[in-house]
Amino acid sequence: MSNQIQKLKGGKRPGAGRKPGSTTRLEETVVIRIPASQKPVVSSLIEAYAKKQRFNQARENLDPVAVFTQPAPHLHSIRLPLFESKVPAGFPSPADDHIEGRLDPNEYLIDQADTTFFVTIQGDSMIEAGLMPGDKAVVDKGKIAVVGDIVLVMIDGGFTIKTLAKQKDGSPKLLPANSSGKYSPILIQEPMQFEIWGVVTGSFRRFRQ
């Protein structure tokens, strides 16, 4: 009887131990023995490694932009007919009763010419915000970015466009607009170099030449 009791008390019990996926560590862990005096050093190295891994993951989600251009030095007024939104199928009649007014594309897209520039969208991380590859995004560096704005940012020398949000500690967080799961939010943290270059105020594209 005593041997049976000993067997029940000892050994690994079914279902015991940490459940799979319950740890927040980046990798599986192993047990090692180190001098007690070296524990702070090892802990610091592990934390630095974890930060580097998170940093590398963030860089994978940059989805960069390219081709920075500025408006022409002298913008001329171009007022084109603005037709009513509800017109019969086919080409709108040029009759005056179908024209709401005249629209200047320069005035519509550009608030301040001296603080505005354009960038070309390369990736598809913001397609659900209407920014498609090849589009020209209108960026105003004179506007103060607030949470919810679409912004052009620089992260460690690379540029990307994302929606500005905040983490629980108040640090910036950049959100994609693509529900495919291809892109993850970018959490800004040390040692990243982070700077907001401007607020995206609009975009335009051509369908044919």
Automatic annotation (TrEMBL):
UniProt KW Lipid metabolism keyword: no
Positions of the UniProt region annotated as Disordered: 1-26
CDD domains reported in the protein's UniProt record: S24_LexA-like (cd06529)
Keywords per UniProt: Autocatalytic cleavage, DNA damage, DNA repair, Hydrolase, SOS response
Stretches assigned to the Peptidase S24/S26A/S26B/S26C domain: 81-200
NCBIfam families assigned to the protein according to its UniProt record, in alphabetical order: PRK10276.1
Family the entry assigns: Belongs to the peptidase S24 family.
The name this protein goes by in its record: LexA family protein
Originating species: Methylophilus luteus
Lineage, uppermost ranks: Bacteria, Pseudomonadati, Pseudomonadota, Betaproteobacteria, Nitrosomonadales
